[in-house]
Structure formats: structure tokens, C-alpha cells
From TrEMBL, chains A, B:
Removes N-terminal dipeptides sequentially from polypeptides having unsubstituted N-termini provided that the penultimate residue is proline. Keywords: Aminopeptidase, Hydrolase, Protease, Serine protease. GO terms for molecular function: aminopeptidase activity; dipeptidyl-peptidase activity; serine-type peptidase activity. Residues 1-156 form the X-Prolyl dipeptidyl aminopeptidase PepX N-terminal domain. It comes from Lactobacillus gigeriorum DSM 23908 = CRBIP 24.85. Belongs to the peptidase S15 family. This is Xaa-Pro dipeptidyl-peptidase.
Length: 793, 793
């Protein structure tokens, strides 16, 4: 498997020498050494766990330079040049590979080629040896980390602890901060909100993990994660709303309005600065933050309104939520007051912060990055938003329908708000907050309007894409192309706006579901983030902005291949149109003329069968006789050339339902019997990555070929028949009335392999996402007025 | 669920006061406080994360004493006595419970009863308040840990770091050692073995994690885990032997002999003592050791011969393996030499060790405890052997048959030895070791004799039970009653010997499979181990030996119920005999007369069906038509009183096979449609237990009621027809010759609930454990000469 590397910065030899000397790896008198001596010395330097010259020397018998010779013996003779085979046999052992089990001593270079590991053809001089070692220390080990980071995990940089300065190597920050003395403290930021309506501004608890030595004299950047889950998660999954109910007439819609919470202005920051007096009991949960904490970046977590230790109510998606998340940055930047405890007596400042803040986090935590970024708050320099929601309507609704995130049938805004209302766990707070909380829950349920599923002013206030003009920070989005929880439309639509702004912007699309990607084999994402944050938050000119293409997309056939694109949009492909035929084919020339029907049974068969939603989906897309019945499906011939579907496929279809209401689902599916990649990455080395020295760990992982399957979902979409005239306003329809629907499916970037077929499936009830009616409805499709457009390359 | 507690030591008030003052919890002038003041103070003391008086006071608003009053307000008034409801409402919040979600403020005591949490009825005086708090600090929190340990996890004992002394509370050691400065070092113990036959004694790499401050002046005990997996695991599962083959004639047996490896005596310890010069790159992997490391116990790991960093060959189960594991204790006790590195130049001593050593670990790691204990090595004071093998024949063979550990079909001694031969990963070592290793592998395969499956001198040398007379240390065994990897016979048979020795001995039997139990809800095992090791290795008179019954057995119906027994043996029950009838009943009065047959198809149907072994087993015991066909099954009436089957059921049966060879399997199964416990404990709070302060974590877990199932395996056993005359020597048999088999099944302690039925199943091929012949064989059972005995209570 290829260990692709984008974060290696090409460096002139002189700078390499300087950097190697700055980390005490290369002795200042290196030119006095013979080539063989220096080779031996540098190997020994790499063995960070051996602490004395004697113990390093004793280790030389554990390495082999060839099938017959150990390194200790090789070093006894003098060599005019170091045989690359000998060098890379040892190098691979240093990188953590096992002879015979991973590679053969007879041909290390063949293995390096296969793994996409860099090597030099010749090592005949001291300078070539130094260059080879510089590159080796900056090469990814078997565990996915750079060798220099593996050495760090064994304590190489402990002698640098306490020197109170950042240290960079190949443009990236090194872990030179004493992780045994990380400062972990809690403060309370005063908000301008009074969401619990007690007449006092809400306090927001903020938890800070910051490097030992960070101070006014050594200010450090902050990585801030706004995590509504940080205070704990109230498990209410058993109380999810029932989805086993009939559709309602969408014209019952009354356009619920967003209603603002009261404002009580906070005190202005003053001059006093007391040290924090409460220690954090939580721990950093996000490996990327921990990795960077060891390298000098503070890690700041706040749950925001309604979460444990904070005042107020959780109002998921609302402007108040954005405000409370943003206010933490204002404190970090020196523009807002915070206190040492909830008595509000002692002010405390983030004087340890250099005023440059980045945001990290996935899902809801990524969502709040988009939210906060749109405020243009001072101090926020960059966001790395993973699997984020850009409009809450696109999370819980679609085209006039209630549409669940994957594996979350019946979940909704009110329940998510309850999940995060963890200040109810503080019994004293609960006494005060409970009645207000209950009223808010009732409002959220009513206004989110599960009855009609329609867009409204309530949802409009939860669409961050209206405010992208406010964004001033640089931008990185990360999303899984198979994320059916936060569906890819969320990242796609915000990307179309962000890419037009005068800010640096990047997009990573991986093959996972609702997942992050900082420890994949196939790309050095963590190293890229190191480079990026050093550039954005420490303002070091390390070329981060030029190191990798704007859009990086992981291939769906080969996990270790990444497509380098300038954009992700329809426009990177050419438009094609497919038509369904009377013979159930899908072809480019000409429609069928028939009107074809299917009878939808809602959720009745599904519930009786007691199978899981994912089982249903797989059987359904495979065309299993029982489950495929309530659908129409049109299939192309086998592809004879590989084609990649890009952007958002669009369906136009004329349909009539036998009731005066109805929902249509459309899926595109790749059909072929073949071994596809695993749905989630396989753990390759559990806990095998050291984030610092005696600190946290992460696990190397990658998508790998899995057992044979028959089909794979590419994309899908859903639409309410009553929105045929206007996506934002329902119309009355009659039973059997034909209406013209026109909607886009979720965006994709999907390579159809040779020999596969594309299937267009038209159906109604989607057991895992739509409501599941209790009544039958017959849907009739007029093929003459039905067509599929998409862009391909 | 009941949080049972055995490790609480009843303590007189005066000692409670002394202990509370020794940990700076109770002020020396406590009698000057009013009752209310002292209540407030002690609550604040408990909130270890708030570091100043002000921040502690600010926290008082987060607690509620009743449905309407917060603690801050309650403390403003003076109370003549503390209302127990108010006290325990606060206490439960301190213990981590959530109001409304876990319990109601209106009735905290009802909840405490349900959870088996201790409480006082009256708190009317200072002394009663102190007593209530002492008990509270020693009460198990929601996360399963004592409240004092939860406080420790928040840094309560940091002020005690560096004081260079142990501190005890309620008989248990407290975490007062600086876990940010754990000393982690590697040394090389010189063995008397030369298993790789290079003419030099093998060096054994030993990894030590020891408390900061441990030294000649502050010697500490050592918990030693002999772990063949510590150096890494060579994944060879794909090369497991095929089990899809016919049985062989067992008389091909040639009684393979154990063959000793060469001896090269090590140097004697001298006077020199250099500090270790190599740092450990591994981490402690066993949470119990980590927990105790924070409390002053060193944690020592060694892989032994053949593992990474060590010389020699892995010879699984052999006396050499025992010797190499034992030699580490000899070094810890001062009786053997070790070096700082593999050059053997600098001697290094375990001068930091007090000479008292305990052993811990599960499976192979538990096995080596039994092995080492039988040597009676000086310094070894106690073993806590979990899920351990006591005879290797009982792991890979049974009654003349090749019988796999669960989920390990085709694995054998040679493959396990390969798995652990991790010094092949040191390329330099591999050059030397590989040829010897290959020869050893060949010998192991031949001598372990997968062809006949018979006992032999080779296996005899791997039966630790022959050497139990040598045991001098105290003994704790832990085993899962559903462990089908290391089957319960291993612990049962060694227990029958150990219980007769003049040593302290205990046995824990839980409801898990191949699992450990140090973080179950239903029992405070970790606290018991703390008490135990303090008693055994620090020689503190804390009553550990009287705190819990000799044998503790978890109930199979209610996970939070533990049976307290004096022994585990047939003798704790009364003997009953059941007979199979012609009508396929199983009853107490009188045999059937018929000769009944079934045709065994070996593994043919199983392989065609492509189902897992565990799926097969469940369908098979349920009597699924297809899978039950090659078996005879006899079933009792429904039990009308609960009965517990104890010890080892015994089957006598007269059987003929249609071939001149054959294997018989017998299972006892409980039949009833009911919700049984999960097979493995459910994780209740992932990482929710702090093992120290900013150290490792563990996860609270417990068996919980799972979905309805139809049947559960109680026990089973297997026997080769050719051993009908002698378990240790095969006989020729003829086709269709009736032979009398008499063998015992795996031991059990299984409560048959009212309404369940007991089924006796006679079959041949056990898809998950026996060989799976390619040929059919008809087995005929003579019911008139078949009976089942067992003991029940």
C-alpha cells in the first residue's frame, strides 16, 4: 500500500544540515567522520530508546544490511560508498518494517517502490549520506508517522523540554513541550446571551489544555474545538420520534419563525488577570489536537450554552449557539471577559495565547466551525471542518420531506438539543434550568415541524450558507463521500461559496462514512495539518499553501490513490443525459413512452421482517426480489471505459401518486460483482502512533479490499410531490395528478469501473431515511418525461 | 445493578479519623466546626478539581440537596443534624450519578439500596458525619471505582507526590507516586539456557516500569507479567493447519519424547550495579498493573526466550520456557545477573525491588504463572493467574483427540510458538536464529502429533499439575465459566491440587469467555487485588486474607449476584444420574433399551454452508433441523425447582462406529426461550476509570441481559473411541465394535432456571473443535449402557 506524502517540503542541503544540527542529530564536526563512521553514528542517533553510546552500539547486532551480514559487522569495515541496498535495509528496519514478513533483505528497493517510499540511488559522499538521512527522518514509517515523530515518541526531544521555544523541522513543529506538565484548566467566559432567562448573562465553561511554559512571554496559538458533546451525552436514542406514520398534507405548513433569546450584555474585560483555579477533569478527545498540543498548540474545548458547567439552554443550530461558540474566541483574542469560577468575582485572561486561533472537529464540532467562521470573528485564522453540516435543513430534511441522517431514524433537532443539554446533570443547575429547558424543547419540536417537513424561516435561520460573505479565515473542509449521516450536499454547497471568496481554501474528500481521516495510510494528513497550522497560526513561511492541490479526492477503487483536482463541481465534467426505456434500460438515446407503476407499502414489510436499515438498503440496491418490488429500476449496459461521475446528478421525472400526497426517492447504484473497499477503514495498528512522548496514541487505518458485494450506492435523493411547484412552499395536489419533479441528488465523485452497470432506481419509502407510511400508495412514472443528467469525466 | 463490595475493611472511628487526617481530608481542628460547616467543608474537599477555597465554594450551586434547594443555600442555614436524604443526594452526585437520569432527588436511599450502596440512617453528630464521609470515600462510584480513587484521578494526591512513602487508606495503597515520572527501563537477564545453541547463554530482555522514587532507600514490590506476546505477535493465523481431514488410526502413536535444550550457565551476580541505559519503548498493557504502578508497585514484563530483544527459541510449554520466565524473578530477588545491554559488559541490579514479587496476567500470561509457581522460586509471594492453562494437552487435545481452543481451529503448539518468536523481527537476530528456529518448528509439529492426538511424554513435560508440590506462594485463580479457549478443566484440575497445599488460595469464576474481570460492576476485584498485594508484597496487616470467601462464583442468571463457596468440586453437590430413554427423554429412573444411530458427515455440510463456527454451534444446540441431524439428543422435563449443576459431569456410553476409528462428542445444553446474559461484558463507560492521575484508563463493564435465545451450552467433552481402554494409550478397534467410553465433561457451575430443560446431546464432529472428517461414519449408541452422572445443589 502506498504511503503517499504531500507534506515533505523540498529543502536545500545547507538548510538540511542546519536543521539536523539544530535537533542535535548531526554533530558539528561531521566532516571529520569517515562515511562509514557517520553512517553508524546516524543510525545510532535514530535509535532514541538507547540512551548511552554503549547501548546504541550494542543495538547494531539487531540490524541486518544483507541476508548474511549484521550492521555491527558492516560498520567494522570501511566503505567508500554506502551500498543503497545496505542503507535501505537498515532504513526499513528503522521505519519499523519486519524482514521476511514485510520485505526481503535481497531487494529493499522493490519494496520501497511498492510503498511509495522515497530513496536515493547513490550514497557515495558525506553530503549524500546527510541528505539521505534528512529524507529518511522525514519519511513515513510503517505506523504512518514520520520517522522523526517515531523518534519523538521514544523521547528523542526530551532534552529540548523546558527550553521555551518552538522548534521546526522540514517546516513542521516538533514536540519539544513537556507533555508530562500540560496545563489543564477551566475558566468561565461571560456571554451576551441569557438563554435561560434568569436575568443574568450565561456563563460558558471553557476547558484549556495548553503547553507547559506557555505564557505571556511564550504565547502559543490555540486550536479551539466547539464540542456540544464535551460535557457529556444524554442518551435519549430510545425516545426517537416514530417514523412509522403516514405523510401529512404539506399545506398544513405555517412557516414557523425563528425566535431570538434575550440578551444581557456581559461585563467588559478589565485589567485584572487571576490564574485559573479549577482544573480540567475532562481529557482532550481528538488525537489531532493532542498531537499538536505536544508541538506547542493549546487545545481549547467548550460545549457552549446548555452544556455541563455552563448556563443556558441548548438551542441546536440557532444563532445563539453560534454566538456562544464564537464568544470563546473573543476571550482567547482578548476581546471578552472570563472568570475563574461561576461566582464571577475573579477575571482571568488568555494571556498565554498569541491571538491566533484555529478550529478543529468533526460533525457537530465541524458544523460550529462553519457557523463561527461566518461571523468573521477577530482571531480566527483558519478552520479545518470535518463532516460538517452547512444547513440544518440539509441534515434533518430534504426537498420538503423529513429525511433522517443514516442510522438516526426519528432523531431530530429537539432530541439532539436534549442530548447536549448536559447541564441538567448538575443537579443544582437543573433546578433552575429544567422548566425553561422543557419549554424550549416543546418549541423546537413544534417549529422544526416534523409534520410537513417543509423549509421555513425557522430553518432559514439555521442555514450558515447565507452568511459565507462574512468568512475571513482560511478554510479546509474534510468530508466522506459515503457520509450518509451528514450528507455530502452540506460540504458541496458551502464549497461552491467558499471557493469564490478571497481566502485560502482546500477540500479533502475521502471514501469513509461519517469519519475523520487524520491517520490514514494513503495520505499524510496529520503532517499536512502540522504544516498548515504552523503557517496559519505561527506565521512561519513554510510553503504550506503550495504543498498540495486545492481538492484531494480519494479514489473509490484504490484507497491509496488520491485524485488531485482544482475544484469539485459539475463543471469539472461533461454533461450527459440518460433516459429510462420501456424495457427498463437506461440509455443515452431516447425515452421510453410507457407509464410504469409500482406500489409502495411504506414500512409494513420492513417492520415485519425485523431486518436492519442497512441490511434493507443492501438488499434493495442489489435488486433482491422481495425488497425491489416497490420500485422501478433502469440499468445501463456494462461500462467499457472507466467513467467518473462528478458533482450533483439531477433527475427530472413526471409522477402521479394514488393519494393527494407522496414522496419520491431516487438512487443511483453501481452494479457489479466485485470486491469493494471496506465501508470504514480497517485498524492496522491499534494505538501504534505516538502523539508525543508518553502522551496519547492514535491508530493507523485504511480502507482495504473487502469481500465480494453485488452493488454499491453512489448517491440518492428524496422529494415531496407537494413541492413540485416550489421547493420552499407546498402545493395542494390531487390523487393521480401527474406532477413534474426536478431535483438534484447528493454530490459524488465516483469511478464506474469497466464491467459495471449504472442503475437508476425510482422508489418511495426509504426505510432508513424517509417516514415509513402505514398505507399503500401507487406511484406511476411517465417515462416520456423522465430523464437523468449528470456530469462525468 | 448491584455494586457489590468485598474490599471494604471495617474500621474503628478513631482509625478513620487518623486516616482522614493523614490524607489531609479532615482538618485537625475539626471539632471546632459546626456540623453544617464541616459538612460543607468535606463536600468541598471531595471536589478535587477545584483548587482554591473560592472555586470550591462556587461549585456549591451545582449540587442539590432536594428537589428545590441547592447545596449553597442549604449550607447557609445551621442544621442540628444532616438530613440523610440531603446528605445522600449530594453523595450520589459526588459519586457521579445524574439526577433524574439515574435517580430521583425525592428518594436517594431507594436508589442506594437498589445499587447495594452503603449509607447511614442518621448523621446527627460530628463523629457520625466523619464516619459517613469515611464510608463514602470508600464507596464505589458510578464508574466502579472508589470515590477516593475518583478523587485521585482528579489530582487529589498530587501534593503527596515525591514524599517517598507508601500511603494506605482502608487497607489499600493510594496513588501517591508521581506518574508523570514513571521510570521505564530495559535490562537483559542472563539465562542458564542456550536454546539457540550458539554456545552462549541466552539473554532475556526485561522491561521495567517502576514508580518515581523507587530505589534502594525506597524499595518497592514488583508485579511481574511473563508475556510471550510483549515483543509483538507474528500473525500466522492464515497458516493454521487444516482440520478438514479424516481421523487417523491412533495406534500410529509412537509416544514422542520431550527433548531438553542445551545448558550454558550464566555468570554469577557480582557487586557492580550500573543504571539501566535503555529506555522502554513498550507500554504497560494491563490496566491492573498500571493501577498498582500508580500506587507504588513496579510492573515488570518479559517475553522470555525467542521474543523480540531476547535470544533463543520459543519452545511453547516446555520446561525451558518455565525456566526463562522464572529467571526474571531470580534477578528481581537478587539471585541472578542482568546487564544493561546485549554486550554483557555492565551488570545492573534490581536494587529498587523489595524482593517481594507477585505475578499477574491472563491466558498464556496466566499459564506462565502456574509454570513459575511450581518451581517454588524464592521471591515469588503470590500469583493471580487468569484464564490459565495448567496442562498444554488440555489446551490443544482431549481424551486422545485433537481439540481446538474456541475460534482457533487448526492452531497448535508450533503455530503459537511461531506467533511468539518475535526476535525474528530483529533482522540481525534473525540471521542467526532462523535455521535453529526452523528445525525447532519441525520438531514441535512432529512431537505434538496432530496425527494421533494422543497423550505422550512430550505432553507430560508440559503438564504443570505434576509439579504443584513445589508451590510456595499464595494463589488466586480467575477463570470464565464460559471460556472455551482455555477450557475450565485447566483451572479446575489445578485447583483440586492447590486447595490441598498449605498456602492461601482463592478462586474467582465469572460468566465471561476468555476474559479478565478487573473492571466489572458486580464485584470490586481491583480493590481486592490492591488489598491482596498490599498484604502479600508490602506485608501490611490489612485483613486481606479474611475479606472474601475462598471461592466466588458469578451467577449465570443475575450478573450482580456472586455465590460464596468454600470449594469448587463435585463434592459441593449431591450426585444424580440421568438415563437416556428410547423416547429420547432424559430421566432419573431407568435406561432405554434401544440402540440408536446417527450418521456423522464430518465437516462437509458445514463447509458448504459457509457459516461461522459459532453460528453452527448455536444452531446445533438449538436443535435446528439441518444441523441437529447428525446427533442424538435426550431431554428432561422442565425443571420445577432451580438446580445448580456443579463440578464435572461424567458420561458413560457404549458406542460403535462404522469405521475402525471414531470420535464422540457429548454436550449438556440448557433449553428455554429466555433472555440470557451477554456473552461478553457490555462496556458501560469507555475509559471511565482513571488508573492514576493523568495516567491510563480502564472501562467499566458487566454482563447484561441480552436478546432472547433458545438454548445455552453448559458444558461439553470429546473422546477418541480408540482410547476406550486407556486414556493414555490407543487400542486397535474394529468397525462396528461396541466400546465403553467413560469420560468427564468440562467443569461447570450452572443454575438451571425453573422452566428450563436439560438436554444431553451425543454427536461426533464438533465443527469448532474436532477434526472435520471428509468421510461419513455411522455411530450407534447402546442406550442400555449409557448414563450421565453429575453433582447438583
Amino acid at each position: 500500500m502506498k504511503y503517499n506524502q504531500y507534506a515533505y517540503v523540498t529543502t536545500p542541503l545547507e538548510k538540511e544540515i542546519n536543521e539536523l544540527q539544530a535537533i542535535d542529530f548531526l554533530p558539528s564536526n561531521y566532516s571529520n567522520y569517515s562515511l562509514t563512521e557517520l553512517f553508524g553514528l546516524l543510525v545510532k542517533q535514530t535509535i532514541a530508546e538507547a540512551k548511552t553510546a554503549e547501548s546504541k552500539t550494542a543495538k547494531m547486532i539487531e540490524f541486518a544490511v544483507s541476508e548474511t551480514t549484521v550492521l555491527a559487522d558492516y560498520l567494522k569495515e570501511s566503505h567508500d560508498s554506502i551500498n543503497p541496498k545496505a542503507f535501505y535495509n537498515v532504513a526499513l528496519q528503522l521505519l519499523g518494517y519486519h524482514v521476511e514478513y514485510d520485505y526481503q533483505l535481497s531487494d529493499p528497493l522493490a519494496f520501497m517502490k511498492k510503498q511509495a517510499l522515497p530513496y536515493k540511488e547513490e550514497i557515495g559522499s558525506i553530503n549524500e549520506l546527510i541528505d539521505a538521512f534528512y529524507r529518511l527522518l522525514n519519511t513515513r514509517s510503517k505506523n504512518g508517522q514520520l520517522l522523526i515523530d517515531v523518534m519523538a515518541g521514544k523521547g528523542y526531544f526530551v532534552p529540548f523540554w523546558g527550553k521555551k521555544q518552538f522548534l521546526f523541522f522540514n517546516g513542521k513543529a516538533l514536540p519539544v513541550f513537556d507533555t508530562s506538565k500540560v496545563i489543564r484548566e477551566v475558566v468561565y467566559v461571560e456571554s451576551d446571551l441569557d438563554t435561560d432567562e434568569d436575568g443574568k448573562s450565561d456563563l460558558i465553561q471553557v476547558t484549556i489544555f495548553r503547553p507547559a511554559g506557555s505564557s505571556k512571554e511564550l504565547p502559543v496559538p490555540a486550536l479551539y474545538t466547539a464540542s456540544p458533546y464535551f460535557g457529556g451525552i444524554i442518551d435519549n436514542v430510545k425516545r426517537n420520534h416514530s417514523v412509522d406514520e403516514n405523510l401529512s398534507d404539506a399545506t398544513l405548513w405555517s412557516n414557523p419563525q425563528y425566535q431570538a433569546a434575550p440578551i444581557v450584555s456581559a461585563n467588559q474585560p478589565r485589567d485584572s488577570d487571576a490564574p485559573a483555579s479549577e482544573e480540567a477533569v475532562h481529557k482532550g478527545s481528538y488525537p489531532l489536537n493532542e498531537y499538536l498540543l505536544a508541538r506547542g498548540f493549546a487545545s481549547v474545548f467548550a460545549g457552549g450554552i446548555g452544556t455541563r458547567g455552563s448556563d443556558g439552554l441548548r438551542i441546536t443550530g440557532a444563532p445563539e449557539e453560534t454566538e456562544s461558540a464564537k464568544e470563546v474566541i473573543e476571550w482567547l483574542h482578548g476581546d471578552r471577559i472570563a472568570y475563574t469560577d461561576r461566582s464571577r468575582t475573579q477575571e482571568t485572561k488568555a494571556s498565554w495565547c498569541n491571538g491566533n486561533i484555529g478550529m478543529t472537529g468533526r460533525s457537530y464540532l465541524g458544523t460550529l466551525q462553519i457557523a463561527v467562521a461566518t461571523t468573521g470573528v477577530a482571531g480566527l485564522k483558519t478552520v479545518v471542518s470535518e463532516a460538517a453540516i452547512s444547513s440544518w435543513y440539509d441534515y434533518y430534511r430534504e426537498h420538503g420531506l423529513v429525511i433522517a441522517p443514516e442510522a438516526c431514524q426519528g432523531e431530530d433537532l429537539d432530541l439532539l438539543a436534549e442530548t447536549c443539554q448536559s447541564n441538567l446533570w448538575d443537579a443544582g443547575s437543573a433546578i433552575k434550568v429544567k422548566p425553561k429547558y422543557e419549554a424550549m424543547q416543546k418549541r423546537l419540536l413544534e417549529k422544526s415541524d416534523r409534520i410537513t417537513g417543509q423549509y421555513s424561516d425557522f430553518w432559514e435561520a439555521r442555514n450558515y450558507r447565507h452568511h459565507t460573505d462574512g468568512i475571513k479565515c482560511s478554510w479546509i473542509s474534510v468530508h466522506g463521500l459515503n457520509d450518509w449521516n451528514v450528507k455530502p450536499k452540506n460540504v458541496y454547497k458551502v464549497w461552491q461559496k467558499v471557493k469564490q471568496l478571497p481566502i485560502k481554501h482546500h477540500l479533502f474528500l475521502h471514501q469513509g462514512p461519517h469519519y475523520n481521516m487524520n491517520n490514514l495510510v494513503s495520505i499524510d494528513f496529520t503532517d499536512l495539518m502540522n504544516l498548515w497550522f504552523v503557517h496559519e497560526l505561527l506565521e512561519v513561511d513554510n510553503h504550506a499553501e503550495k504543498q498540495w492541490p486545492t481538492v484531494m479526492i480519494q479514489d473509490n477503487l484504490q484507497a491509496d490513490k488520491w485524485h488531485e483536482e482544482n475544484d469539485w463541481a459539475d463543471e469539472i465534467g461533461q454533461k450527459v443525459t440518460y433516459y429510462p426505456t420501456d424495457e427498463l434500460d437506461l440509455q443515452k438515446d431516447g425515452n421510453g413512452k410507457a407509464k410504469l407503476s409500482f406500489v409502495d407499502h411504506g414500512g409494513q414489510d420492513f417492520k415485519a421482517a425485523k431486518i436492519s436499515e442497512s441490511d434493507w438498503q443492501y438488499k434493495f440496491i442489489c435488486g433482491d426480489e422481495k425488497w425491489a418490488k416497490p420500485s422501478l429500476r433502469f440499468t445501463t449496459e456494462e461500462y467499457i471505459h472507466p467513467v467518473t461521475i462528478v458533482g450533483r446528478p439531477e433527475i427530472k421525472l413526471r409522477v402521479a401518486g394514488s393519494l393527494p400526497k407522496g414522496q419520491i426517492s431516487v438512487a443511483l447504484v453501481e452494479i457489479a460483482d466485485r470486491k469493494r473497499l471496506t465501508a470504514t477503514p480497517k485498524f492496522l495498528m491499534r494505538g501504534g502512533q505516538e502523539l508525543g512522548y508518553r502522551f496519547g496514541t492514535d491508530t493507523l487505518q485504511e480502507f482495504v479490499p473487502d469481500k465480494l458485494t453485488h452493488a454499491k450506492l453512489i448517491t440518492k435523493g428524496h422529494m415531496n410531490l407537494q413541492n413540485y411547484q416550489d421547493m420552499k412552499k407546498p402545493s395542494k395536489i390531487k390523487a393521480d395528478q401527474f406532477v413534474d419533479l426536478d431535483f438534484k441528488l447528493q454530490p459524488t465523485y465516483y469511478q464506474m469501473p469497466v464491467g459495471s452497470k449504472l442503475a437508476l432506481i425510482v422508489y418511495s419509502t426509504d426505510q432508513g431515511m424517509t417516514k415509513r407510511p402505514l398505507e399503500d400508495e401507487t406511484y406511476t412514472i411517465d417515462l416520456a418525461n423522465t430523464e437523468l443528467h449528470f456530469y462525468q469525466k
